[in-house]
Design brief:
Length: 164
């Protein structure tokens, strides 16, 4: 019986046992931090892409996005390409598996600017372009279940067409 009580009082190896119990939690915490960081990085790339696409669209001529009419398909295609790749002639997407169909370009007109400033002589007011993008999130650790591969990242940005 004395050896049993001596065994209970023995503290050698307690730190190793505690560490062995905590390692799975620490590894999951580390992988979760990697996954969250990668998700926010992907989200930031999509946000930056739509902002650049909207800025590019804002520098196109008024005729590309007429008030009361349909947008010029060439201009829409250029905005989609710039949003997806970062350049007019780019082929590699900023976000893996993102295609031009994932980028939506629409426009509306703000009549409160009709005939004022650079919009003098235009009918219908100031054309405002809205660029929206969706990208499927490519999970780093899909099998661990932090964020599954069916998640998507969405972003949008608007810019007034300056006709430069």
């Amino acid at each position: 019986m004395r050896s049993f009580f001596a065994f209970l009082r023995d503290t050698r190896g307690a730190a190793a046992a505690e560490m062995a119990m905590l390692i799975p939690f620490l590894v999951l915490l580390m992988y979760g931090a990697f996954e969250a960081g990668h998700f926010f990085y992907t989200e930031q790339k999509v946000i930056k892409a739509v902002r650049e696409g909207a800025r590019f669209a804002g520098r196109l001529p008024f005729s590309s996005f007429p008030c009361g009419g349909a947008a010029d398909t060439t201009a829409v295609g250029q905005v989609q390409t710039v949003t997806r790749t970062g350049t007019l002639t780019g082929t590699v997407s900023r976000v893996p598996n993102m295609v031009d169909a994932d980028v939506t370009v629409t426009h509306r007109c703000d009549a409160s600017w009709d005939g004022q400033g650079i919009y003098k002589g235009t009918s219908g007011g100031a054309p405002i372009v809205r660029v929206q993008a969706r990208a499927d999130y490519a999970s780093l650790f899909n099998t661990l279940g932090f964020i599954d591969s069916t998640s998507s990242v969405y972003a949008s940005a608007e810019a007034a067409v300056n006709g430069i």
